[in-house]
Amino acid sequence: MNINSHTNFKVYTPDYIAKEMIDKSLNIGEYCYNNLWITGYDIDGKALLICKNNILKMLKKYEIEGKKINLVEINSLMEEIDKTYDIILGNPPYFGEKNNKEIFTDMKKYKFGKENYEGKMDYAYFFIAKGIDLLKDGGILTYITTNYWFKADHAKKLREKIKKYTTFKYINNYNRSVFEDAVGQHNVVFTLTKEKIKGRLEVIDNKEKYYIDSDKIYNYKDKIILAENEDLERLDRVYNGRTHFLGELLNINQGIVSGYDRAFIFDSYDKKYSEYLKPFYKNKDINQYSYNPNKYWILYLDSKVALNEKISKHMNPYKERLSRRREVLKFIINWWELQWARDEKIFNVPKIIGRQRSKINKFSYSEGEFYGSADIYYLTPKVENINLFYILGYLNSKVFYDWFKYNGKMKGDNLELYATPLKETPIYYSADKSEIAYIEKLVKKQIEYYDEKTQKLIDRYFLNLNYEK
Hints:
The chain is α+β, with helices and mostly antiparallel strands. The chain contains 17 helices and 21 strands. The radius of gyration is 27 Å and the shape is globular. The two termini are 52 Å apart.
């Protein structure tokens, strides 16, 4: 049965589709079921059995018995399937390449796998791509997956394929796990059709329902943005009103990776190691414009530090564990060194510091020693005469939050303020020195004592710059 692609289909299950088809069969005289209507593929025999039983229960209600349910236990990704379908449903497995390299290596041996592979991708992407290949023109695909691929750097190839061949019809972004045994997932159900048309896309995002133009769902980097048309227009003005991207003005670096915190992090200052101890901060210490006093100290041992009796006495109990680190085994670092000490300069120069993950944008300013963990990012001037206070005001503004919420990375309700999306963030950097001085004065007031009225002035400035241009 061919389904008109403009029909208001949203979320399907195999037994639901079978029911719809049986109901339509009454138009030709009586309820009937054709075993060619539905074909199921799965590598998991138990999953196929559940599917079969659900369809049989539904058929029983119509007093239809003795019908074959066409289910096949195979890995459909690695099989050449010479049929195309009107409707494809799926709940693919979600796992990354990092701990499953053999599976991805096997996929690349096949033409389909090689064509659709992208480094650091998720296995589920193959299933979406395969579904598109197996759809008839005008056919419908409905899947439930995680929502990370909407913006993931390693899903570019998948989004290109979706944009080229299909149109979204429905997206329900639960942004939480819908499975009891999969805590921490952020799921989405989506429906698309294999055709390129302009139309209205129904979106349910965190239980809020709205409609947007289907051709406007992709941003300037072809990432998928869920926002109402009014919001999309506002974000376009932010982008088009930019003078720079942050990465053109700032170096953006991650904090220290020790490789084994127990060996390097101290709860209190120990005079014995005074020449090596540095004040150490964690992600949660950073607030908007300010940061908490450090509670910890780090034994900062980089390539410039030679092993001596004092260091040996402290580090020897951890030697076996530290020696198993990848960089030690590859002779990149000595066993007593921090795994990634970074360029020490970034911890001591004037800089903006920011949380890697936070519900709101939290950036502060530091001129002195500020050694931090890998979940802290350091933003230092890339070009001369850049005013860090002006940029700090922008990073803590509602304009920045709004932009990053839609165009940056999110995990659940948290902003994921990683280097790449930060570098790609547009900014209007004024050429008017009086404007720079105005924001600098307000930001310095916020550093001294945070005040909501002052923040409203900062927000208003950046709102007017970006939205009225």
